[in-house]
Amino acid sequence: AEPQEFVIDGHEVKEPIGMSGGRLEVKVHIVTGAQSAAENIVKCVRRCGLEVDQLVLNPSASSHAALTADERDLGVALVDIGAGTTDVAIFTGGSIRHTAVIPIAGDLITSDIAMALRTPTKDAE
């Protein structure tokens, strides 16, 4: 889960750490996935002699590489076109508000170009 906003005693706050109040509320973006897939990734990394500190949502990691804090704060749509899937993340107020994975991506586009131009896939790439 990724926190989107906090409310202390009915007042929105950015960072509740160090604040006091009678009631703390949090709105989160919940991410679900196949537990077995995550466990397999962790197992593979450990077999390489490394440790996993945490698993991070792909659009969240991409946003730290490609976006500024101001862009995430003001609002932006991050579209990451990979080989097999396209990841979309909507940011406002510095937090992820929506994510989606679309099963249309670079491989399909390359294949369509190769077919339309009647050229080998490596040339269409």
Automatic annotation (TrEMBL):
SUPFAM superfamilies named in the record: Actin-like ATPase domain
Keyword Ribonucleoprotein: no
Origin superkingdom: Eukaryota
Keyword line: Cell cycle, Cell division, Cell membrane, Membrane
Keyword Calcium part of the UniProt annotation: no
GO cellular component, as recorded: cell division site; cytoplasmic side of plasma membrane
An example Gene Ontology biological process: cell division
A matching Pfam family: SHS2_FTSA
InterPro entries: ATPase_NBD, Cell_div_FtsA, FtsA/MreB, SHS2_FtsA
Domain (SHS2): residue spans on this chain: 1-66
Name of the protein in question: SHS2 domain-containing protein
